[in-house]
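Quick log. Single chain, no ligands specified.
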Amino acid sequence: MSTNAPSPRSLIGRGSYLEALRIGEILRKETVGGILLVIAAVIALIWANSPASESYFALRDFKIGFEPWHLELSLGAWAADGLLAVFFFMVGLELKREIVAGDLRQISKAVVPVAAAVGGVAVPALIYAAINWGNPETISGWAIPTATDIAFAVAVLAVIGSHLPTPLRIFLLTLAVVDDLMAITIIAFFYTDTINTTALLLTLIPLALYAFLAQKYRRLFGMKSAAAWFILLPIGFAAWALLHASGIHATVAGVVLAFTIPVLHSTKHGKHTGGPGLAEIFEHRFRPLSAGFAVPVFAFFSAGVAVGGLDGLASALTDPVAIGIIVALVLGKPIGILAATWLTSKFTKATLDPELKWVDLLGVSLLAGIGFTVSLLVAELSFGLGNPANDHAKVAILAASILAAVLASILLGSRNKQYKKLQAQEAVDADADGIPDVYQQEQ
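-> predicted structure:
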């Protein structure tokens, strides 16, 4: 007997086939960046705790630049303020593309990763605040455990879960991108002490010019995207420098500039074509720079901390700052993500994708506890270089990230064989057009 009852909506669906291919390409590139990030962090730790440690800190603190725009900065500051702006530019491009042309343009597909990201930010912040409540010197670090390091997480995923199903991969990437956007919003609103109004207003001039040229680049430069890049880069740098001088953390400029870049290729009559928009072109150009250089160099200058042997390590890990960070990242992240996802399923009456289990979401949620790049940045903003609390926070971030990676590896590693079987079946089911039937059935 047939029934006309509608099938339950999938809580975490596959998304479109083109989206799956695009996500796969992004994750492959981020994997390389994650490996470089880990290598850079390890080198920094070894150097900072070696007999030649003074040379590491001298290099990190070496100042270069020019003062008129408050740009006489140490190499470490250039990495944190400048190179991470490139990273957040990529985050902004990815988020805008997801909203305009990706699966996030559909509210039904966006609500789960967005809700999960909110839970993954709120719960760790509350846990850290609860552990450090009443201490005005350490409570300011509440935002440290809120961010997920997508490059580090994807690098771990590539090693232990190469056959992870597409829905989980999309979920992880989208979650991390939204997570990073919330982190940069927190930085903009909560880690800005004083604002230079003149510099902030002047920022609007290059920003407006940048947005105008970006939107009109086809008409102005034709198909020569290299010309657009060559012209937009110095204008973007001017906006970054003025925002830096205003007192707002300059990495915010990366996201703001990215949001002005058009995602879709339009003709002069305003009609969209199938060609790549400037956002896609810039993604291809800047992702190697971000993943292969900007983030690893930042990790090199930020991860180096003199532990001080076993006694120093024990002292660091027993500090409420470190305890709050570790508990928040390792426990708070998965609790927040899973709780938000479960609540969403109850309110929307959606069910989990048939090939997934809640244990799979737990594994990905543990991966989200790898909070490295942005967490190190927020630690510096919270406590400042040279502050013992900052050093303890760095030790805790490293320890928590390693612990989260190990736990996720154990859990997802046990599921990897099943993932491989599922993907093998999809390949068998593919039609002559090369698109697996499961994607065609969902259209």
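Residues 388-429 form the longest helix (42 residues).
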